[in-house]
């Protein structure tokens, strides 16, 4: 194989409780994450020399040097492969950026994870899950969960993952006012770092059970994010007006999601909000189900 491609799906924190802080400043979280059926796209092919190309609606202003998480992932995997005596020939990478940047939906982390998956295939790298998780964590706290790409409870700083097999597929609308948010800044603004963890997850696939469960959970980063992006309140009011059963912010923001009872309801809300707010990112999507293999 000399070329391959991977989708880098949007990550959604359905709930995110901040329950402590490590001595090094990183926060301990208890978060339920799931993944969209779409996102960025990373394609890779063996080439004469390393190359990187960016395209897509949100490529403007993004780093094209070694600070782009796609290239950080390439460089880290290559160093690991070479250290183990393997070969990691030059590759041309193409990142199609469909997700807004610094938006709380894991864009850069998803790109890094997709790059790892693509290059492991291209370079015939084999690795056990534990070593791969540790490698991913060196790229960012969200990268291990994006590498797994399955509904999970994320604990520790986000790297301790427990599958959530009974989480059903959800119909969501993502809305972002295109105001980038700095993750460290939002964590720094927290008033409390010792909040209670999430309740026990429902054991059944029932959507009403999950809706009720989610309604009882929180995103502890929402209050500090609202200080920086007041539009978060407006977005949630608009989501409720379009019939969302639940709305909440994902990650460190500012993207919020609305939960709808059907794909049609999410699509209708998408049409309404795109007309009302043409300058915002508004995307209806379906999430992966916990029991898909
Ligand atoms: C908010 C979440 O998206 C929830 O899934 C993640 O916790 C953030 O994950 P991420 O963007 O991959 O974070 P990293 O790139 O590893 O860290 C960026 C910065 O965010 C802060 N950070 C991140 C994760 C975490 N559990 N505690 C933190 O305090 C730290 O200041 C860190 O320097
Ligand atoms: N491929 C990439 N895509 C997006 N951001 C990138 C990428 N590479 C580097 N970055 C940098 O990472 C920062 C965080 O962007 P990202 O989109 O990953 O944030 P996020 O969605 O808030 O992530 P998370 O939900 O993991 O906190 C940006 O400010 C950007 O400069």
From TrEMBL:
Kinase is among the record's keywords: yes
InterPro entries (alphabetical): GHMP_kinase_C_dom (IPR013750), GHMP_kinase_C_sf (IPR036554), GHMP_kinase_N_dom (IPR006204), IspE (IPR004424), Ribosomal_Su5_D2-typ_SF (IPR020568), Ribsml_uS5_D2-typ_fold_subgr (IPR014721)
Role of this protein: Catalyzes the phosphorylation of the position 2 hydroxy group of 4-diphosphocytidyl-2C-methyl-D-erythritol.
SUPFAM superfamilies linked: GHMP Kinase, C-terminal domain, Ribosomal protein S5 domain 2-like
Binding positions for ATP per the UniProt entry: 100-110
Domain GHMP kinase C-terminal: 211-275
Protein name: 4-diphosphocytidyl-2-C-methyl-D-erythritol kinase
Reactions the enzyme catalyzes: 4-CDP-2-C-methyl-D-erythritol + ATP = 4-CDP-2-C-methyl-D-erythritol 2-phosphate + ADP + H(+)
GHMP kinase N-terminal domain segment(s): 76-149
Entry's family note: Belongs to the GHMP kinase family. IspE subfamily.
EC number from the UniProt entry: 2.7.1.148
Transferase as UniProt keyword: yes
Organism ancestry: Bacteria, Pseudomonadati, Pseudomonadota, Alphaproteobacteria, Hyphomicrobiales
A GO MF term: 4-(cytidine 5'-diphospho)-2-C-methyl-D-erythritol kinase activity
Pathway field: Isoprenoid biosynthesis; isopentenyl diphosphate biosynthesis via DXP pathway; isopentenyl diphosphate from 1-deoxy-D-xylulose 5-phosphate: step 3/6
Record keywords: ATP-binding, Isoprene biosynthesis, Kinase, Nucleotide-binding, Transferase
GO biological processes: isopentenyl diphosphate biosynthetic process, methylerythritol 4-phosphate pathway; terpenoid biosynthetic process
HAMAP family, alphabetized: IspE
Annotated active site: 11, 142
